[in-house]
Amino acid sequence: MNLGQWIGLIAIVLSLYILWQIKEVLLLMFAAVVLASTLNRLARWFQRWGIKRGLSVLIAVGIFFALIVGFFWLIVPPFTAQFHELTYRVPQGLERLNSWVNAMKTQVPAQLVPYIPDLDSLIQQAQPFINKLVGNSFAFVSGSLEALLKILLVLVLTGMLLANPLAYRRVFVRLFPSFYRRRVDGILNQCETSLEGWVIGALIAMGVVGLMSVIGLSALSVKAALALGVLAGFLNLIPNLGPTMSVVPAMAIALLDAPWKAVAVLILYFFIQQAESNFITPVVMAHQVSLLPAVTLISQLFFVTFFGFLGLFLALPLTVVAKIWLQEVLIKDVLDEWGNSHQKEAELVIVSNSPGVDDPWEADSPDNVERTTDDAWQEKD
Predict the structure, then answer these.
(1) Can the keyword Acyltransferase be found in this entry's annotation (predicted)?
(2) From first to last of its 381 residues, what are the pLDDT tens digits of the chain?
């Protein structure tokens, strides 16, 4: 390779290294873009009713913050009370279990007594782990502050994007060659439509899962059924893993009443998860976003491996956008046109060898030359 090629290779490697170092910032920017696109669609819906742009944006943002405040208002107070009760009910349960074990030692043969575990010794062995967990409380607090700062960053970026979305879109489109800019603008329209479909589908699935959870938990007389149902619906945003995460607090609260309730809650959430994964999500997403179930699971594993929890949370919208860009750019514009380019070269050679044509480019006319300008990309769209 010559010097220019080596410089280009080094520049590509350095660019990839820099992008990898700032991958978390890029994910936060993408989260802001998804949120801004959703709120922008909602603001456009209000504009169709004759409301001005500024007021429409304020209404959309107000609805978003009202949902956030309502979520924490429903979740935090009941959970605080229930887990406060859990803190003194667990030691009582351990003491009762210890007395039951001691009573059982007096009723079993002496040969089996050494094989019965001593609860006090188990607690002493677990004490170092408990101390380590308590010692990491500072790290937990600092991690919470870091998460809060990231959320604030996403909200600020969302507000900036909502203020003038067309300006940022033009900047992004101008990063591409002039003949391809109209094509890029069409791909961005498809991404926006697909993200809107994903948001609508996710909200429908969240609502159905939350309603089923509230009804089931209320039938079992589990405390804080509404808060647990709202939490189950919210965690449904994380497919496959979200329903599993939502069953833990529900079982813990049900355990305060009776052990059989915890088992019943586990069975209830199992059936809800089966209904969600086999019926609700496939039916809803088939009408909104066409993603194969295996592709969804593979994308989750990929993004959680390389980007952590934030990548898992954004796995589906990232997959939706990546699918559109791969389908439109790589498949349609590169691979599908690969054989056609060789065919055009062969036709050009035939035209150049035709009698009466001194210059092959003189044979170009609107009838036999495929244009590569912006108009041609518009026609392909």
Answers:
(1) no
(2) 677 778 878 888 888 888 888 888 888 898 898 888 888 888 888 888 888 888 888 998 899 899 888 888 877 777 777 666 666 665 665 666 667 767 766 776 766 656 666 656 655 555 565 555 445 544 444 556 777 888 888 888 888 888 888 888 899 999 888 888 999 999 998 888 888 888 888 888 888 888 998 899 889 888 878 888 888 888 887 766 677 778 888 887 887 777 788 889 889 988 888 887 777 766 666 666 666 667 777 777 888 888 877 787 788 888 888 888 888 888 888 888 776 655 655 554 554 555 544 444 334 443 443 333 344 333 433
Distance between CA 327 and CA 260 in Å, rounded? 51
From the list 332, 339, 345, the residue with the least C-alpha distance to 377 is 332
Q: pTM for the complete prediction?
A: 0.66
What are the Cα distances from residue 347, in Å, to 122, 299, 323, 366? Answer: 83, 43, 34, 15
Q: What are the residue boundaries of the structural domains of the chain, listed by start? A: 22-105+141-341
To 10 degrees, the CA torsion angle through 253, 259, 261, 265?
A: 70
Residue 67 burial by Cβ neighbours in a 10 Å radius (0-12, 13-18, 19+):
exposed
